[in-house]
Amino acid sequence: MTTGSQLAWDDTVLPFQLDASDMRGRVARLDGVLDGILKQHDYPPQVEALVAEMALLTALIGQTIKLRWKLSLQVQSKGPVRMIATDYYGPENEGDAARIRAYASYDADRLTDGAPFDQVGEGYFAIMIDQGQGMTPYQGITPLAGGSLAACAEAYFAQSEQLPTRFQLSFGRSTEPGVAEHWRAGGIMLQHMPKASPLMAKGEGTGELLEADDLLDGDASDNWNRVNILLDTVDEIELIGPKLSPSDILVRLFHEETPRVYDTQPVRFGCTCSEDRVRQSLSIYSARDIETMTTDDGRVTADCQFCGAHYNLDPKSVGFEAETASE
Questions:
Q1: Among 76, 181, 183, 218, which residue's beta carbon has the most beta carbons within 10 A?
Q2: Is 220:194 a contact under the CB 8 Å cutoff?
Q3: What share of the chain is helix, strand, coil (3-state, %, to 5)?
């Protein structure tokens, strides 16, 4: 293995299909993307881990959808970590990289020494799809449950989309010899495309959150169970480490399932904030409203939660009564 080939795997999502079991999936490796996201903030370790997990889920889910514009994942919680938000922007042109950004809002004095997921309390996990101008946005939500953000995403797909879905994720600080410590993440997403569950068709059940097994029967259930047993054998270092390529992981895990791979999708850290967007967001306010937003220094300021960009504007140049369009 060469350093160049190793770098080629980082910050990519590899789509694949298992012909023998009628499943599709994705393998993701994130390195620079996480560095771009996390270096903007000084998050405590538990919050960093939650943001890393959310970013990895966003990369895996975003690549499954043929987006014209944006996929957003969001956690809203009554716990110490009040919110986690991520955006995935589909590539504008064939061969371009997709872009991911993320941030978290939290109460530092309420954080505990517990596991990262313990820092979110009662709340919900949401997936939102915005296909751009002229298209109706979509949103689906599921309660926060299951012990991880990945489990919440699995419950969402089972409940809202009736798609049996499984995530196997690994993320943490890399401590390779001779390399500065930094965050890395890797994961696999599996998804079966069955008919709706017989229980759902008959309106039966307990009203509890659905799981993948609730949606499958017969051969489809056998296939799902078999492939998940194979996925359970993957080691964390195989998902996150630099020694095994994504295609080699698929062969190691699923060689009897006839894996087929497709074009790799590169992903990058990227934010869409700009001064023009700030001005546009302020354009609905009158001069009197703008005056209430003006600092003691006589400026209107705005900070991007995603990338940390700071905007400092002349109050006379913003709002629908602006005297000048720009400074």
A1: 183
A2: yes
A3: 35, 30, 40
